[in-house]
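LAB NOTEBOOK - FOLDING QUEUE
OPERATOR: T.R.
BATCH SIZE: 2
PURPOSE: Compare the predicted structure-token outputs for two unrelated chains run back to back under identical settings.
PRIORITY: normal
REVIEWER: second-year student, initials M.K.

ITEM 1
FIELD SEQUENCE / FIELD STRUCTURE:
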Amino acid sequence: MKPIVEFCASNMHHGTDRIMQRLEQDPDYEVIEYGCLGNCGECYLFPFALVDGEIVAAETADKLYDEIVKNIEEHRANREALDKLLDDL
């Protein structure tokens, strides 16, 4: 299952539009843009996105990209470890 990365159109002034476009080029991600994600405090203060429903934020849009990728990799590793554990039972 592809990770879902959601962006708020109102957050694009932080440069997240570039990050969204970059992630859209990768077929391993499902990228969705909404008019509003209902996280107005985060939206006003810094670049953010939702990754599988979890807020991922950073000081800059470029750092946000790194945090998104890191978050996805960590979740993938956790799922693989859990799958292995269940297979071993």
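ITEM 2
FIELD SEQUENCE / FIELD STRUCTURE:
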Amino acid sequence: MRAWSDRPFGPVTRLADVAAAGARIAGENGQSAAVHESAAHPGWLVKRYRPGFPEEPPEVLDRLIGLPASMAPHELAVVDAATCWPVSRVVSDGTTVGVVMAKAPAEFFTLVRTPFGPPEPLPLNLDQLVQTDPEFYKARDLAVPDQPERLRVARNLLRVAAVLERRDVVYGDWSYANLFWERGEGRVFLIDMDGCGLSSRPWVECNSWNDPAVPPGERLTVHTERYKIAVAVLRVLTGVRGEDPHPALDALATRLRAGPFGDALRCSLDDPPDLRPSSQELLELLESELDARPVRPAAPARPVEPAQPAAPVRPVQRAQPAAPVQPPQPAAPVRSTRPAAAPSIEDDPFERDLSASVPAGAERFVVPLIVACLAVLVLLLLSGVVSALLP
């Protein structure tokens, strides 16, 4: 496997040094005139640009090429294992004419039965995953993806997206063809990374992936990116295609759809770009669901579901009134079990301070009142004795 960390190239490479072509990988498509494997450096691909591409100044590609050098080790591990990150800008006569990137590893390819010949090794991209008809897989002699496999792919997709967003990298070109996945393990590999922008990038046409909140021609950002990432996650998890992603949301497993993860995906589709949850939030919510841990909402505006019910606390507070006939309750040890983050309950009778019902300063009248009562009793007793003694 080739990766950014073991690149044998400098940031800029002369076309003459990589012109010797090995296997042809792809023809003209998008901004690419052709893609071939380097004869001198097997495992590395040379992508030749069409005239007029890339659209951005060469400094943008240079910064993108150098960005992994500043990443944390866990982020760099994602870049190396899950992306064909550009490693060198190819120049001829001072002009950018191409880029060098790593070839996708063999585990992202599989033998697919074809109608007119022997099985062929083809990349496993989202086209093979976003399907609901078992006959599609039967015709190609492929196993039908199960739900655990889909969940692993979705989780790994979000891990890649979270690194990109954290580093302000805008991919933009999400499609059925550009994300590969591995059978069983669910690892992913994102191709065509050389078109990424930093902070923003030119608008790119992606049929059935376009964000309705972004007019054609408007630059894409990490916030507009969140729509396409949510669409990709929904399609991976359900296999449901179509221009409108809401049927895929409706087809999501009930546990996921009804919880905070489903709410976050709905916000990613329907909310303005700046209010959409980040890829990291989606990842944490999905992992919380998978690990059966208490989940956090994707947006702070949504109410927090209490992690523990308040019922265990109330019986302790009911025992606090000093009724003589009831044995004392060891309040302190039990109160320590109250969750630190439990929300306060406004005007809850069990949360009130019972001592507040005694008026402040009333205790100074207690002793005189007792003395007066005793005096009255003594006078009554004496008057009864005197009455008895008189004839």
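REVIEWER COMMENT (ITEM 2): The chain is about 35% helix and 15% strand.
FOLLOW-UP: none requested
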